[in-house]
């Protein structure tokens, strides 16, 4: 395939650190953009440019996307747990900032925008599992609502300005290089086990999520960038649900010893169960999760010990 000029917004984050190397390996030129001043998580490469950029800086964003074939929007300024605390901030820094991005991409003739949406939050509490892309979307947290609104604005820009967009509704990604100390049950639990600390579980541990290895997510982004059909949302996950208790059991096997667990009151914003139907991604994008959960956990565990 012909080399593309790719802009990765949020390149130093968890998804960006997985996507950028795959784009380079595929022969593309990458402009890696992040608020971070050091890109230590991304190995130097002759086709890689690293650019310190504030996503809220409209001028800088427009300059960065000029001439791009593909723009990967991986930036989020909030998390599901915190988004309801200041909803105005969530909207201003995610929705409004993304509208400015879409305006810049349309004005600069960008070929396609790929957006990291959230399969875990846009659907809300589903009436049945697994959840398909055409099922109701009723988010119960601001994070999911802003993701959904951004999807709709992306579609609006396509209808009005011809800007091609695809949104990936990602399950719960996990894997190496997840450095946020407060996000992601798998890396948080792994760090606590390494430190000999007690694991804190919200509720009774029955909450079910759909976990997908981060390198598989990165591969889905590249396939979506190449996709030229009419569909605009794809679930990207494993298609299998695992409870928090399941996660603890698997981590005990990796640790070679039991771990101490404390159960605390459940949180009101946690969806009881979410499992995504990935049929559309399989049949249309030719994507499927390549890393089994147990193998992905092992790779993550080993990477954290380095």
Automatic annotation (TrEMBL):
Gene3D superfamilies: NAD(P)-binding Rossmann-like Domain. Pfam families: Epimerase (PF01370). Residues 7-237 form the NAD-dependent epimerase/dehydratase domain. It comes from the Bacteria. Pathway: Bacterial outer membrane biogenesis; LPS O-antigen biosynthesis. Signal peptide: none annotated. PANTHER family: DTDP-D-GLUCOSE 4,6-DEHYDRATASE-RELATED (PTHR43000). Belongs to the NAD(P)-dependent epimerase/dehydratase family. This is NAD-dependent epimerase/dehydratase family protein.
């Amino acid at each position: 395939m012909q080399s593309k000029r790719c802009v990765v917004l949020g390149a130093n984050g968890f998804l960006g650190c997985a996507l950028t190397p795959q784009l380079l390996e595929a022969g593309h030129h990458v402009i890696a953009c992040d608020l971070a001043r050091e890109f230590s998580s991304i190995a130097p490469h002759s086709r890689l440019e690293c650019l310190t950029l504030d996503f809220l800086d409209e001028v800088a964003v427009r300059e960065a996307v000029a001439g791009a074939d593909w723009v990967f929007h991986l930036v989020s300024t909030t998390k599901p747990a915190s988004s309801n605390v200041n909803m105005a901030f969530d909207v201003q820094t995610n929705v409004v900032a993304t509208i400015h991005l879409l305006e810049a991409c349309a004005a600069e003739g960008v070929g396609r925008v790929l957006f990291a949406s959230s399969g875990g939050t846009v659907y809300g509490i589903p009436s049945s599992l697994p959840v398909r892309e055409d099922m109701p979307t009723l988010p119960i947290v601001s994070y999911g609502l802003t993701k959904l609104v951004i999807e709709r604005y992306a579609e609006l820009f396509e209808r009005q300005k011809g800007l091609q967009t695809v949104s990936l509704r990602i399950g719960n990604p996990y894997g190496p290089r997840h450095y946020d100390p407060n996000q992601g049950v798998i890396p948080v639990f792994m760090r606590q086990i390494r430190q000999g600390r007690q694991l804190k579980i919200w509720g009774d541990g029955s909450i079910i999520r759909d976990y997908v290895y981060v390198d598989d997510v990165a591969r889905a982004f590249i396939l979506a960038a190449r996709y030229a059909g009419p569909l605009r949302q794809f679930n990207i996950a494993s298609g299998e649900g695992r409870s928090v208790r399941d996660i603890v059991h698997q981590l005990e096997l990796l640790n070679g010893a039991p771990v101490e667990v404390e159960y605390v009151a459940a949180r009101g914003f946690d969806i009881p169960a979410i499992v995504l139907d990935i049929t559309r991604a399989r049949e249309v994008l030719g994507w499927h999760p390549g890393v089994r959960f147990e193998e992905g956990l092992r790779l993550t565990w080993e990477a954290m010990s380095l």
